[in-house]
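in:
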């Protein structure tokens, strides 16, 4: 039985606080979470449940340890969690939750009703001490499925998504929304533009076309793709970048410079570089800091629907 949620956190008077919710039906205190609905992704469910239970719209950050435990009749329940900051929201509560409490880690330690919740709390505290709790996401997207080159007589940059690709573009909307993406740069080729356009429309933002991300420009000036990544790292704002298969290794290797050999993020980027990303796939990099001080903290891959 899959479920997802998040540990909302903030700093108040230079002190870390986390949000716990109280359910009067069970008289328990825990993290905001809930069941994954049919057709939902884990991150979509986590963002939705946090909003429904706390009244706050979250921006998901680093992934936290999962909880897996047995329920009645021997069923296993898996809950996936993320750290998250509040993007917006009124804090109005629904009937299922009657209180949201912002607590210091020490206060939360004695408040929660389930020992298993200590795993997520400790991960948040450890990340705070390491300076890797506050991050911003950079999402690398490969364009969706498209009309084949053999079946297209017009210029290649005009080659559109096919029906499967259009569905993949729609599926990206809640994923990018869960990470609070506010800037999207893309190759102006039709298949890339159309992959991220549904999210841009839903979020009310303008796509930013960059010719340095096209296959044609990359073939002549491969350094331009890396410079686009460097600019995004300097801006340090939640962003997505959509490009083509030949360009992706340069993009991913530029991001790999923000981590070190032997760590999970380095290995994940190496794997994505060597094996390639699937059409319609999104690779989420959580980055702490900016520019020369940026550190890549985590990497998650969200496959196409």
């Amino acid at each position: 039985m899959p479920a997802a949620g998040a540990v909302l956190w903030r700093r108040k008077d230079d002190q870390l606080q986390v949000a716990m919710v109280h359910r009067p039906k069970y008289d328990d205190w825990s993290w905001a979470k809930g069941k994954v609905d049919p057709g939902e992704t884990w991150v979509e469910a986590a963002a939705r449940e946090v909003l429904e239970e706390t009244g706050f719209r979250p921006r998901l950050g680093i992934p936290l340890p999962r909880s897996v435990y047995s329920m009645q009749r021997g069923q296993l329940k898996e809950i996936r969690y993320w750290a998250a900051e509040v993007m917006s929201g009124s804090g109005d509560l629904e009937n299922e939750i009657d209180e949201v409490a912002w607590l210091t880690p020490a206060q939360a330690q004695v408040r929660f009703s389930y020992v298993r919740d200590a795993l997520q709390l400790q991960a948040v505290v450890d990340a705070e001490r390491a300076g890797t709790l506050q991050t911003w996401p950079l999402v690398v997207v490969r364009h969706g499925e498209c009309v084949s080159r053999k079946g297209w007589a017009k210029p290649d940059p005009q080659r559109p998504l096919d029906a499967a690709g259009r569905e993949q573009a729609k599926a990206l909307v809640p994923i990018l929304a869960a990470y609070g993406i506010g800037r999207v740069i893309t190759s102006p080729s039709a298949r890339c533009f159309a992959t991220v356009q549904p999210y841009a429309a839903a979020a009310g933002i303008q796509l930013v076309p960059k010719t340095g991300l096209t296959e044609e420009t990359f073939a002549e000036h491969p350094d331009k793709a890396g410079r686009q990544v460097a600019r995004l790292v300097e801006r340090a704002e939640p962003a997505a970048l959509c490009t083509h298969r030949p360009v992706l290794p340069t993009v991913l290797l530029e991001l790999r410079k923000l981590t070190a050999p032997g760590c999970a993020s380095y290995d994940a980027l190496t794997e994505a570089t060597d094996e390639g990303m699937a059409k319609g796939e999104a690779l989420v990099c959580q980055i702490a800091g900016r520019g020369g001080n940026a550190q890549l903290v985590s990497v998650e891959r969200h496959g196409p629907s």
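note: The longest helix spans residues 163-178.
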